[in-house]
Backbone:
């Protein structure tokens, strides 16, 4: 059987005829775009890719090893060559003792945050693109090519209660497991050690976060990523709850015509309510998947638990506003009252969360208004500072719902 | 995942640094602006002017194809953006094109409904849609055409503003409306009786709406004169009629563009600044009125006419 026919949920988009025309970093761009093209593989702006390549040093003319890695803030689907940072590999490897010799190491230590600015000293060929926060992982994995992605199916496994056991069950020894830890040197070193201990492993599942694959061959790295994601998606399908998803339906879907009318009549009012500090632009989502969630029995409880992908917090906030309203009543005034009450509570909760968790050097509290509003019967309204940003917010919450669906299918 | 861990990501200093690296916001960022008449001339130039300041542009025109064309030009220049989501029209980019006949209230309502689903609100509405109907050879204007002139230039502008007012009121955020009248609104001329009267009515409509919609929404207008380039208001026949009227020499064989140029030069010479007036000059004034730069101005009509002594108020 052909490799490309063996996947069920992911698209195999690699074409040798195209890739083989390309060299060096252009092949990395090609691989990244193919990964980004299939939304089942990663979310907008999420994930990163790297290749360790030989380049001619502009100063000495000698061949040197360079780590090409997706830049910070970029997007795999749309990234071009200038979206990648380039770093001298020997220099970034030399950062390891700097970290290891520090008396107090680990996530959230001073030295962790002090490491990232050091990358500026390692820039190859004056490339102005800032490197990704995941650069230590890409450096420390001892393979030429590394892909790191945030696929819904994998995160569903990685966010479930039994994440470690499920990883074993789905992947056996092929894929390593590390619990959630924010990106940085510490987790990079842990993965480096795990690979030493399990040299046959092809990738790793990162708790609450996503996965990585690696190989010395770029196409194999791509295919491994697809395989890891497809296996997670197959597992989820095998355990799908069908009608009972999210505890089954609580409300009926309203007909499209009624829904759109109601949203069009309500949304500018809602915009005014959430734009107290700054104006927002909205995106409406009322497709089948969204409606199943907002109309479900467990929707409100799951939404309150919050988003499990740390990657999304900046856009979606830690939880959405789930409006307590019965769509069967059709009472739009009651809906407004419910939204107002929900907003007051939401802002209070957000402020309390900020005050409870803040550190002396934390940035000031951000806008306490929700960016994701879920309304039974109607769907989701997501907000962002531009249309593009509000689409990202909406996309991220679509991901969150997929993750909850998968994580609940044990 | 526990809340502290979530917080430590949301407020991570490295993430914060990433946010602070973003370019500063532009003047019209976060805004959704409806430009009615965006298919041609001054409206098209306005759409391109406002998007440069960060606004999302709803390009509206009676002619759907030209509305879409302007929206496509904007998307080609600024990109669709990132993020893959949104149902139906809500998956749009920084601009959309919509068809609408401003003389029909239900058509205007449908247009705004689409805007709500696409972007969720409005921050400003610009109306450049207008019509000039020349009198017949005997200098007479039929009742039907008189009505049409008023339907578009006065009633249409009113309906667009009136329906916008409902949204502005619901939304509760300060907004702006800019209409387009004409130098002719205050200068009486031969051969443009219906048009000039309609524009005079539009001038007063600006003041009435400003009173009606205060304090939330400012209502102003620009009063252009003689913007020949890019305008569909100057078809070949009208240009030839004007050249003849002003005794400007021309030949029937000349290209329309060359005839237009002659007329534009003549108009320019007639003004105090002696400069030709471009659609972009009107767009600039409209931008000022939409933005916070003229945030203390409402109920006024700003002439952008090169300086017409006849148009000075007595
Ligand atoms: N061009 C000038 O010299 C000049 C001078 C003074 C005033 N003005 C005024 O400026 C405005 C814009 O002029 P322009 O030169 O850009 O004109 P234009 O004809 O090039 O553009 C006007 C647009 O309005 C649209 N439109 C017409 N009727 C409509 C309707 N019922 N509903 C929706 N859209 C409709 C047209 O399709 C067209 O795309 C007009 O109000 C005009 O009266 C123009
Ligand atoms: Zn990641």
Residues:
């Amino acid at each position: 059987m052909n490799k490309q026919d063996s996947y069920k949920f992911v698209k195999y988009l690699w074409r040798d005829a195209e890739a083989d025309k390309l060299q060096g970093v252009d092949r990395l761009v090609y691989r990244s775009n193919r990964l980004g093209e299939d939304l089942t593989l990663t979310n907008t702006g999420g994930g990163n890719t790297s290749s360790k390549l030989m380049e001619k040093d502009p100063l000495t003319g000698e061949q040197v090893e360079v780590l090409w890695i997706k830049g910070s803030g970029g997007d795999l689907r749309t990234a071009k060559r200038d979206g990648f940072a380039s770093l001298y590999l020997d220099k970034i490897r030399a950062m390891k003792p700097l970290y290891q010799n520090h008396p107090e190491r680990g996530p959230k230590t001073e030295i962790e945050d002090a490491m990232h600015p050091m990358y500026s000293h390692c820039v190859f060929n004056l490339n102005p693109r800032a490197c990704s926060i995941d650069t230590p992982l890409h450096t420390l994995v001892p393979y030429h090519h590394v892909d790191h992605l945030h696929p819904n199916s994998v995160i569903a496994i990685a966010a479930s209660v039994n994440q470690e056991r499920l990883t074993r069950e789905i992947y056996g020894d092929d894929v390593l497991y590390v619990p959630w830890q924010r990106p940085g040197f510490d987790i990079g070193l842990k993965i480096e050690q795990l690979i030493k201990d399990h040299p046959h492993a092809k990738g790793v599942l990162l708790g609450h976060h996503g996965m990585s694959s690696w190989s010395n061959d770029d196409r194999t790295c791509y295919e491994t990523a697809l395989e890891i994601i497809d296996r997670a998606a197959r597992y989820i399908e095998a355990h799908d709850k069908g009608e009972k998803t999210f505890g089954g339906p609580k409300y009926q879907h309203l007909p499209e015509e009624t829904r759109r009318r109601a949203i069009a009549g309500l949304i500018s009012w809602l915009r005014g309510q959430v734009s107290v500090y700054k104006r927002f632009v909205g995106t409406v989502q009322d497709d089948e998947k969204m409606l199943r969630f907002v109309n479900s029995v467990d929707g409100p409880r799951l939404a309150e638990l919050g988003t499990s992908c740390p990657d999304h917090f900046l856009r979606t906030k830690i939880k959405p506003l789930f409006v307590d309203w019965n769509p069967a009543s059709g009472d739009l005034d009651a809906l407004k009252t419910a939204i107002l009450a929900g907003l007051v509570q939401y802002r209070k909760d957000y402020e309390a969360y900020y005050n409870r968790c803040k550190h002396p050097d934390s940035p000031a509290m951000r806008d306490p208004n929700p960016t994701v509003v879920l309304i039974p019967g109607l769907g989701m309204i997501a907000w962002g500072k531009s249309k593009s940003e509000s689409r990202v917010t909406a996309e991220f919450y679509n991901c969150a719902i997929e993750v909850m669906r998968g994580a609940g299918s044990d | 995942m526990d809340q502290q861990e979530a917080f430590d990501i949301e407020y991570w200093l490295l993430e914060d640094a990433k946010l602070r690296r973003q370019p500063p916001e532009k003047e019209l960022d976060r805004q959704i602006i409806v430009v009615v008449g965006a298919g041609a001339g001054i409206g098209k130039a306005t759409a391109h002017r406002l998007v440069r300041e960060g606004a999302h542009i709803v390009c509206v025109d009676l002619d759907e194809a030209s509305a879409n064309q302007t929206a496509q030009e904007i998307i080609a220049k600024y990109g669709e953006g990132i993020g893959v989501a949104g149902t139906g029209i809500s998956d749009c980019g920084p601009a959309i094109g919509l068809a609408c006949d401003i003389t029909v209230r239900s058509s205007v309502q449908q247009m705004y409904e689409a805007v709500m689903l696409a972007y969720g609100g409005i921050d400003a509405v610009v109306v450049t849609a207008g019509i000039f109907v020349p009198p017949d050879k005997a200098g007479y204007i039929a009742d039907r055409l008189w009505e049409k002139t008023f339907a578009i230039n006065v009633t249409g502008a009113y309906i667009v503003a009136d329906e916008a007012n409902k949204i502005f009121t619901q939304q509760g955020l300060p907004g702006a409306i800019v209409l387009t009248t004409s130098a002719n609104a205050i200068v009486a001329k031969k051969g443009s009786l219906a048009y000039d009267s309609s524009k005079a009515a539009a001038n007063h409509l600006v003041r009435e709406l400003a009173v009606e919609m205060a304090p939330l929404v400012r209502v102003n207008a620009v009063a252009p004169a003689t913007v020949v380039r890019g305008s569909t208001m100057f078809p070949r026949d009208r240009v030839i009629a004007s050249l003849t009227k002003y005794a400007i020499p021309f030949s029937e064989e000349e290209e329309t563009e060359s005839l237009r140029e002659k007329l534009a030069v003549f108009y320019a010479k007639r003004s105090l600044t002696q400069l030709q007036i471009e659609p972009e000059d009107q767009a600039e004034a409209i931008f000022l009125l939409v933005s916070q730069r003229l945030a203390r101005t409402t109920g006024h009509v700003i002439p952008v006419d090169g300086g017409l002594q006849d148009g000075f108020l007595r």
About this structure: The first strand of chain A starts at residue 48 and ends at 56.
